[in-house]
């Protein structure tokens, strides 16, 4: 970066957006548009710690399944579950704003060149998150914004009146540069890429791989910076979205869905959890977390031959490409897995004896209530005996997608301080906003990142005139 480039970086700016995923790109674009609608030309800079080639964080790698109704509204179930699991910690303002803003966000995305697919009732972003990473930067530049790659946000600067007046960044040469700005929008994800920080909350987290390469770029910088500047936190810091994946695969998010139809065993050959306790979109996270937290992050999913034919390839969802380990008998399979054959035989016999009559089994049902009786742990749905070989097994380990702990925000994407007051000029959107406890109803992390990214852009552009200080 030349000296003039460093001077460019200094600004002054109206808004600096930290991060180049769903939330950062939508925020930058919406801020520019909001100002233009009021007859102003906004000075907006995006800073992204990754190189141009590695830009886009998790967003670049997601197929971006969206939990929407056929009418393209956020599913009611999401709010019910998030409120239920958070209890008195639920962020009602955020949840209500999410429901209100989703339809207009989707229309806005469509006006800006993003389209949506619907496969068998399941919505996703056409082209996945990469379509936003590819499409939005040119639009941001065309509207007068600038994007600085290889530029890492380090610290926020608050002025005498408490409002944001700047942000220190490390530029591509390693020099620290202060960017003068009236507003900062933090869109830098959670701390899922920071093994040291994760281990403070989740013992054994060093065993966690991230579900994508871009996910590793999210190291909690935005959370740290805001907390150092007086922000409050929210969300469960020892909670994370962890997915059951095949550790043999180097592919992105190589999920193993087989446990749903068969059984899950640990290295001793014992079952250790209900394999189908809740809707699949909820339960896969519980499975990933349980394997990590109780089984040293390794288990095996086993199915019989008829069960393996029921494994549904869900459109838009990644699955492992590595073939299962196969054997004609349970004992032979146990040997291949390094599990004691007599122990696995006993586990399978006990499970089989507890399964109901399979008449009426419907593989397309969300849950079928056909559970075991008289075995612990129970299996609440899709409990069919493992009788007919060949038997197939996949190793399963948890891989991390994002962390639940983050910044406390209101429904307008303001970052709140320890007294519940907005820090003037500071906004946050995407994974960095802490709202989840115990559970993440899937198909909404990308959606909330785009929804609150856009809203942070709109809110900040509206508030800029009132934020005029030293710049
Ligand atoms: C493989 C995969 C599949 C997924 N599937 C789904 C799905 O189907 N549905 C769904 O809803 N969600 C899904 N998700 C989750 C969803 O994609 C993410 O939660 C969402 O994209 C996060 O957006 P974000 O803008 O908050 O963060 P990101 O897109 O991760 O962007 C954060 C950016 O901040 C940058 N950054 C970090 N620190 C700094 C710093 N100090 N200075 C400058 N820049 C910094 C990073 O480099 C990164 O570019 C999936 C994620 C992955 C990886």
Mean pLDDT score: 94
Helix content: 25-40%
Give the distinct bound molecules. flavin-adenine dinucleotide
Low-pLDDT sequence parts = none
Radius of gyration: 24 Å
End-to-end C-alpha gap = 24 Å
Alpha-beta content class: alpha/beta
Strand content: 15-25%
| Strand segment count | 19
Total of helices = 12
Name the overall outline: elongated
Write a concise synopsis of the structure shown:
With 471 residues, this protein is of the alpha/beta class. The chain has helices spanning 3-10, 22-37, 76-86, 92-111, 129-142, 195-201, 221-228, 280-294, 305-308, 330-337, 341-354, 445-463; strands at residues 13-18, 44-47, 65-66, 116-119, 122-125, 146-148, 152-158, 164-170, 176-186, 209-210, 233-234, 240-245, 263-265, 299-303, 325-327, 391-403, 406-407, 414-416, 422-428. The chain contains twelve helices and 19 strands.
Your description of this structure?
By secondary structure, the protein is of the alpha/beta class. 31% of the residues lie in helices and 20% in strands. Helix 2 packs parallel to helix 5 (129-142), helix 2 (22-37) runs parallel beside helix 12 (445-463) and helix 10 crosses helix 11. The longest helix is centred in the first third of the chain and has 20 residues, at 92-111. The radius of gyration is 24 Å and the shape is elongated. The two termini are 24 Å apart. The relative contact order is 0.20. The site of flavin-adenine dinucleotide has 46 residues, from helix 2, strand 7, strand 16 and helix 12.
């Amino acid at each position: 970066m030349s000296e003039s480039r460093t001077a460019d970086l200094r600004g002054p700016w109206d808004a600096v957006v930290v991060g180049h995923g769903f939330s950062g790109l939508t925020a930058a674009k919406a801020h520019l548009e909001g100002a233009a609608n009021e007859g102003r030309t906004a000075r907006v800079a995006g800073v992204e710690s990754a190189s141009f080639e590695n830009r886009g964080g998790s967003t670049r790698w997601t197929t971006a399944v969206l939990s929407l109704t056929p009418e393209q509204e956020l599913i009611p179930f999401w709010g019910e579950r998030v409120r239920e699991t958070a209890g008195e910690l639920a962020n009602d303002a955020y949840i209500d704003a999410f429901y209100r803003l989703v339809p207009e966000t989707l229309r806005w995305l469509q006006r800006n060149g993003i389209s949506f697919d619907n496969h068998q009732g399941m919505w996703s972003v056409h082209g996945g998150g990469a379509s936003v990473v590819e499409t939005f930067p040119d639009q941001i530049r065309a509207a007068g914004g600038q994007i600085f790659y290889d530029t890492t946000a380090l610290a926020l600067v608050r002025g005498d009146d408490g409002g944001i007046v700047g942000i220190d960044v490390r530029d591509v040469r390693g020099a620290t540069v202060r960017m003068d700005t009236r507003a900062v929008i933090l869109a830098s994800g959670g701390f899922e890429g920071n093994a040291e920080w994760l281990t403070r909350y989740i013992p054994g987290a060093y065993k966690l791989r991230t579900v994508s390469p871009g996910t590793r770029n999210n190291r909690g910088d935005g959370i740290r910076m805001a907390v150092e500047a007086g922000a409050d936190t929210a969300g469960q810091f020892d909670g994370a979205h962890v997915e059951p994946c095949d550790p043999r695969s180097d592919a992105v998010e190589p999920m193993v869905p087989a446990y749903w139809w068969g059984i899950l065993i640990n290295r001793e050959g014992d079952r250790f959890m209900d394999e189908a306790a809740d809707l699949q979109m909820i339960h896969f996270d519980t499975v990933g977390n349980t394997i990590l937290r109780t089984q040293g992050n390794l288990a095996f999913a086993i199915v019989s031959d008829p069960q393996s034919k029921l494994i549904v390839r869900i459109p838009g969802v990644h699955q492992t490409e590595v073939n299962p380990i196969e054997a004609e008998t349970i004992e032979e399979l146990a040997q291949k897995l390094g599990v004691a054959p007599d122990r696995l035989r006993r586990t399978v016999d006990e499970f089989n004896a507890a399964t109901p009559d399979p008449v009426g089994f419907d593989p397309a049902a969300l849950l079928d209530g056909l559970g075991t009786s008289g075995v612990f742990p129970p299996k609440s749905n899709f409990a069919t005996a493992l009788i007919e070989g060949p038997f197939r097994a996949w190793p399963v380990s948890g891989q991390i997608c994002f962390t639940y702990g983050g910044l406390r925000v209101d429904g307008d994407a303001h970052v709140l301080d320890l007294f519940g007051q907005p820090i003037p000029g500071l906004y946050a959107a995407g994974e960095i906003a802490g709202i989840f406890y115990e559970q993440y109803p899937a198909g909404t992390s990308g959606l909330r990142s785009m929804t609150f990214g856009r809203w942070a852009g709109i809110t900040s552009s509206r508030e800029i005139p009132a934020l005029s200080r030293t710049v």
